[in-house]
Amino acid sequence: MQPKYIFVTGGVLSSLGKGISSSSIATLLKSSGFKVSILKIDPYINVDPGTMSPLEHGEVFVTADGAETDLDIGHYERFLDTSLTKANNFTTGQVYLSVIENERQGKYLGKTIQVVPHIVDEIKARIKNVAKGNDFLVVELGGTVGDIEGMPYLEAMRQMKHELGSNQVISIHVTLIPFIKAAGEQKTKPTQHSVQELRRIGISPQIILARCEKPLSKELKRKLALSCDVDDDSVIVAEDAQSIYQCPINFLKEGILTPIAKNFNLDCIQPNMDEWDMLVKKIISPKNQITIGFVGKYLDLKESYKSLTEALIHAGANIDTRVNIKWIDSEKLDMQNIKILEDVDGILIPGGFGHRGIEGKINAITYARENKIPFLGICLGMQLAILEFLRNVANIKNANSVEFDVHTKEPAIYLIEDFIDQNGQNQIRTHKSPLGGTMRLGEYDCILKKDSVIYQSYHSQELIKERHRHRYEANPKYKEILEKNGMQISGESPNQLIEAVEIKEHPFFVAVQFHPEFTSRLKNPNAIILAFVKSALQFKK
Ligand code: GLN
After folding, report:
1. What domains can you pick out in the chain, each with its CATH number?
2. Is 150 annotated as a binding-site member?
3. N or C: which end of the chain has fewer CB within 10 A?
4. At which positions is CTP bound (predicted)?
C-alpha cells in the first residue's frame, strides 16, 4: 500500500513525551504486522546535535551509519527494535543547508528562493523519502505548536494532506490537561487554544492525546472532543505511567487504534503485544533487585546517559530484575570515601569526555578489580580500565591518555589520527567536526577472541557490530605488556584496533571501546550489558 502518514505535534508546552507517544504508536502498528518507519524533525538551526552541549540537549544518539542524532531516535530504536539511519532525523539547519547548496549550484534556474515553496518542498521530499517502502510513517515534529520555527513544517503537513488526501495523512496532537489545585479541577482551555492555533494554519487534528496526572472524566473527554472537533473515541487519555514501556499498552487499552484505523479506512488493527506486556510486567514488579554503582560526571544531567540507563532496564526486564542505580559523582570519589561502593553489586563507568573526574573513575576501577566486583567500562571506561591496569598492575605509573596530557611519555591512549594500519592505510572512517575534532562514529566490526567472557556473552559470535563515538584509541604498543600482566585483548577491529579488554582472574571485568547501549532494545537487550547485569545478580546472591 502507499505509505500513510501520522503527524504528531505537541501543544501547550514541551516535555510532554511526544517522543514516547510517537514510539508507542509506531510500536502498536509494527506489532500489528505493518511496515513502519519513524522520523523526528528538529526545528532548530544546528545541523545536528553533535556539537551541542549535553546541558542544551541531553544525549547525542549515534545511528549505525554514524549520524549524531536527537535522543528520541534512541527511543524509537528501543521501542521498534530496529536500526534507523541519518534520514530518520533532520533539522532546519539541514534543510536550509541543502536548499542553499542547490541555490549556489544554480539548480533553481534563477528563481527567487523562498520558504514557500522551496523550503517546504525540501521538507516534503525528505519526509516522503523516509516513508518509501513502508505502510506507515510516524512523523514527530519537535517543539510546540505556535513556535515560529515550526511554521514551515506545519505548512508541509498541511500541503501533504491536501495532496495525498485525508485517507493518507492524519494528525495527532499531544497536549496537556493540567490539574489546578486551587480549583480542584482539570482544565481543557490550553488544549482548546492549541488546537485553534493549529486550525488557523489549516490543520485539524483527528486525534487528541491528552496527557494528564489523573484520569479524565467522561464529561471532560466529551467536552474536549466537542471543542477540538474530534470524534468522541478520538480523545485518548495518556495518564502518567510507571514506566515509559507501559505507554503502548495504555494507548491500546484507551483504544487509540480505533480512530487510526477509521481515519485511514482500514479494517480493525490488531497488535500482538504479548511479549511486550510480559516484559513490562517484569519492569514494574520484578522478582529480584540489584544495585549498580554508576560512576559518572554529568549526574545532574541524567538525560545524557539515557541509552545506558534504558539498556540497564532492558537487561533487567529480561531476567526479571530491577536494576537500581546508585549515582556516584566521580569528582568526589577518592580512596577515602571509596567505601560508598561497598553495597553495590556491579560498577559501571560510562563514556565521557575531558579530564574532569578521571581520578575518581580510576579509583572505582581499582576497587572493582581488587574486590572482584562485576565491572563494565564503556568507551572512556575502557580507556581508563587500561590506564588503571598499566599504572597499578603493570607498574607503568605515568601511563596516560593524550586526552588528559598531550605530552605524556606513556601514551597508552592516543589520537585516532596517529593510527596507520598494517597496509599503511588508515581505514578508519573519520568525521571532521566543525570544532576541529575527528570522531570515530557509527557501527564497526569487532572480532572477538574465542576464550573470552565477551565471546560467551555474545552467544559465541566471532564477529559483532557495535557503535562508536570517540576520538582516542588504545595504543597497540601496550598490547603485549597488558596481556603479559593478565589483561586480555578480547576484541579487535579487523585492522587491529583494541575494542575490548577483560581480566582473566576476575569473575566479570569487561571493558569495551564501543557503546553497547546504542543497540539495546526492550525486546532485544544488548548482550554485554545483559551479561554484566546477570553477573551482578549472581554476585549479589
Ligand atoms: N573521550 C574519549 C574519546 O574521545 C572517550 C569518548 C567516549 O567515552 N564517548 O575517545
Report:
1. 4-278 (3.40.50.300), 287-540 (3.40.50.880)
2. no
3. C
4. 14, 147-149, 187-192, 223
